[in-house]
Task: structure prediction
Amino acid sequence: MSSGNPKKPVLSYVLLLILVGISLVASYAAKKNDRIYLFNLADFDESDGQLRSRAAVLEKGMYTLRVTYTADADVAYQLSLGDDDETSGSLAASSSPVSAEIPFIIKNDTFSFFATFYEAEEGGMELSEVEIVSKDPMNRDALFLGIHSAIMIFIFVWYVKWHRKAYTRQQAAALILICAFAVANFMNFEPYLRLGADVRVHLRRVEGVKDALMSGQLPAILYPYSFNGYGEIGALYPKLFLYPAALMRIFGMSMLSAYKCLLCDINAATLAVAFFSARRMRFDSLLSAVFAAAYTLFPYRLYVMGYSSSALGRGIAMVFLPAVIAGLFLLLGVRFRKDKEYAMREGSYLLGVGMAGILNSHLLNFLLALGLVGLTCLVFCKKFFNRRVLIGFGQATFLALVLSASYIFQLLGYIDSGLNLSYLEFSLFDKLFTPQTYFTSTWNIIGAAFMILGLTVFIRRGRVPNRIKFLAAVAFVLTLFATTLVPWQFLMTIGPVKKVISTLQSMNRLYFIVAVLCPFIMVTGLETAAKGKKRNIAMAAVLTLTVLCAIVEYKAYFDKEIIVDRVAAYTDNEQIEYLPSGTQHSDYRSNAAYVSDPEALHVSTYTKEGYGAVIEYTCDRDGVYAELPMFYYRDTKAVGSQDENVKICMGDKHRVRVYFDKTDESRQIWVYFYINPLFRAGMIITLFGIFAAFRQGIHVARRSAL
Result:
């Protein structure tokens, strides 16, 4: 690297300060707009003469419901404020449109605020507009969006400054990455979030992590307000990468903006990891950028990221898959540089970080990636059974375990928690491609185009390398498995096969691997082609095809229903597949407690705080118990006012059963969720591993000097 211009760092910091300043001004300006949420009148539910609004998400604070209406007679209203809190009153009759303001206070963050107008039909009520306003909104979207943008721009400027050589090919590579980032985030420019199969699940997960952190949990294990306050164990689904979005929510960003920032970060990370991984395998900067763009905009990845599926865990896992591919080929000596020893160190680092990233994103995708690693080692066994290579794989395994310690400890601790997973069973045959529908899918069109382009170059040169033959065979077989050409009807009658396929749920999941292999084969083929106009034309054609296929996925997204609107948000308080076993929807609809002897137990106060509850009571005899509106999970405990342990166990329908002793005076019991110290130790190990891996990544980048 050359010495560079010493003024560049100063200009970078000045740019960052200017952008933060703009965001602060925008945040101040946003305060003047007091609207928090505008209800869609078409979403009001009309039944039994009543009008009920759709539920909305509100943070703790003071608000006003502004209702513009006409009515022939007085109309009673009731506002549900969450946590069984409510306020009521009436709106005066008016023959001409009039606005009424109803002040209310949200004591705790809630996603179950709604308004009900009683006997609206009899009163001849017509709504013109219903909105929630606040003179001092809790929301700070403009501030955080400005800071988020400033940080991303600063990182890019710093990277350009660090790599001071501004060759034409590097400038072209930077332009490709910037354009790919803009295309990948096209949906985020819309001020809405649309329906995807799993989007509500992941919105709830972000909210669950936020609620857990605010209730004092670290790591966040139990989502205290899920299932109508009954709580949901969140230790079985990886969530390390949800913490940034949860922190945004804690500091005042709306659910919509926090989720979209997370999507933006995932897209940026996918481009960065794919580009970095390709450069580690010694592709030049332009080819690395083409690979990163082709992989990031691969139609299956866009589908996963929200343009129909919204499978956020799979989307985050796909960030790290290129690092796994790069690590494998460096460790197995397929892409050695002159310094073979250091290349293997790079390989173990990339493989360890890549596998840890996938494990901390999505367990099922981790198993698919692990299968790919095992198959690769088996095929290249001559290279694998080498002392240095085995040491490299051992180092990668250790690094992955350290980075994943927090999730692994929680998973092992709650793996037998007894969830009702029967809802996760899907019909395999509904999602298989038939020969007639195979090429109606953009996944298959662009995958086949990449494969044909890469293989054609090798064939014309007279020889296809073994690694390309292997990857092409894997991609072809995995794609074939997603079609009806495989006799799945027969294979599903075989016990072990049925068990594996039932775990996958859908053969389309195999495109997780195909999505990275096809672009990799394509750029490897282009690398061997003669330099010049032909290769440039081929790369331009690849990028054009990628963008055109991305448009098809965007169209599918924009045809979906809007579920999150403006500054506030809406999401369901249900995730039926993760209910405790033996429970159903109806079991958590009511917050009433069951008491074995109501005449003996007298409860003066019951206060719910996070997943904990404080009960003040007197009891006339021993052995009385109450089943609380809280799901029982391991590490749920109860103590009395003298710090004595109180007997609890799992009651009917998986609820917490608390036993009360006889007492003549008022006593208190505190029911709470106890964070196992082992889980905290796992979090500390993971944080230490992240810090060490970050430092090592900087060292790798500096040593390689992209």
The chain is about 50% helix and 20% strand. The longest strand covers residues 94-106. The chain has a mean pLDDT of 81.
